[in-house]
Queue: 4 jobs
Job 1
Amino acid sequence: MRSPISLGIVFVAMAAFAVAGLHGQRLGPLAIGLVVVLAAAGLLVMTGVRAAYYVGLAAGALTALAGICTWTGLGGARLALPVQPIIAVVVGLYLCFRVAIAHKLFGPRPRPGE
C-alpha cells in the first residue's frame, strides 16, 4: 500500500461512490464540489507530484468536515454525500492519514547514487 496509485484509487472510489448515491439521493451543489475535489485529488495523487500531498490532505479534511457538518445538522442537504455522515468522517480521516503516511512518495525522486 505504498503506491500513490493505490492511494489515488481510494480517492476516486470515494468520489464514484458519492456520485452513484444511495436510494436515489441527489447531490447538492457543495457536495458536487466535494466530489470534484475528491476525484481531482485522486488523479493528482496518482501522479505523485508535490502538490498532490496538499490537495490530498485538503480533500480528506473537507470530506471529514462535510460529514461532521451533516452529522450535526449544520450543513443540511447541501453538504450531504449520499452516505451516512459517520462514514464520510471516517473515510475523510482515513484519507488524511494515508496521505500523511505516504508523504515521502510525493515530490522529486532522488537519483540513483545520490
Job 2
Amino acid sequence: MYFVTVVNQKPYRSRCWGYYADESRAEQAVRENWTDMYEHGYYDLAVIEEILEGVCALPEKARWFSVEMKDGDVYLVTELATPPDQFEHTCSFAIG
C-alpha cells in the first residue's frame, strides 16, 4: 500500500491522510490536493510511503514533496530528490 502523510515542519505536526493500492493514485492525490489535504496551506510537505503488510512494517521506499500555497487554492507541488534534512533518518510517518 502507498500511504499519504502530510507534514507541517514548524511546529512539527503530521497526519496520515489515506492510502492507495496504486502508487500513481497516491501521487495524483498529492499533486491535486484531494480533499484539501494541505488544509489551506497549513501543511508544507507530503510523503508517500510504500509499506507492505505486517506489524510495524518499515517502508520499502518514500517519496517526498514540497508544497507551496500560491494564490487562492492553487498549490505548487514539487517532488524532492531527498528527504528534508530533519527527516533524513526518520521513517514510518504513516504508521508511527
Job 3
Amino acid sequence: MELNYDLIFPVILGKMFVEKQDREEIEVKLNQYGSEPFHIEVNRVKVGILYIHSVKGTSIDEVIRLACGDFRALVVAAESPYTTEFVTSQSKRSKRYIKAKSKQDNEYFGWIKQLSAL
C-alpha cells in the first residue's frame, strides 16, 4: 500500500494529541528524528513512532531513540513485525506468510486509516 506520509502524519498527530500544547511538546520530541542528514523518510518514521507508542504502549522517548539509532528497525517493528522471518521467495508464498502479512497490514494500515480517515 502506497501512502503519502507527508499528508498522513499531521492528521494522525492532531488526532492523537488534540490539545495544542500537548501536540507541540510531542512535535519537539518527534523532531529529534529528521535532524541528521542520514535520517530519511522522516514522516513515515514519525508515523511509525506514533504507531508503536500508541499500540504497543512503549514510551515515545524510547521509540524515538530506536528510530534515531536505526530507522530501519523502527520501520520493521511498525510495518512488518510478523513477516521478518520470511526471507526467501519460497517462504513468502507460504500460507503462514500470507496470514502473517495480512495480519500486520490490517493492524498497521488499519490504524492509519482509522486515525487519518483515509
Job 4
Amino acid sequence: MKNSLLIVVLLLVSVFVTNAQDPLIVSGITVPSGANGTYELIATPPGLIGPVYKHQSASYYLYYDQFGTPSEFYWNIDNNTNDDDFI
C-alpha cells in the first residue's frame, strides 16, 4: 500500500512539474535595451489571442496577437498589451 501511494504522489508531482511554464529569457534587443531580461507567463487578458509574459523587473510585456490583416499574428514587446497605441 505504501509503495502504491508513493507512486501516485510521484506521478502527481511529475505532472505538475512538467506542466509548469519556464520563464523566457530575451536578449539581443538594442532599442529599448531594457526589454532584455527574464519574462514570466501571466494570465492572458481579454482580447488577446495568445499567451502574455511580463518582464520580471521592468514594465515590458511579450505577447502574441493579431496585427495587420486578420491572418497576420506576431510576437510583440511593448510597455502594455495594447498594440493599437503604436508604442
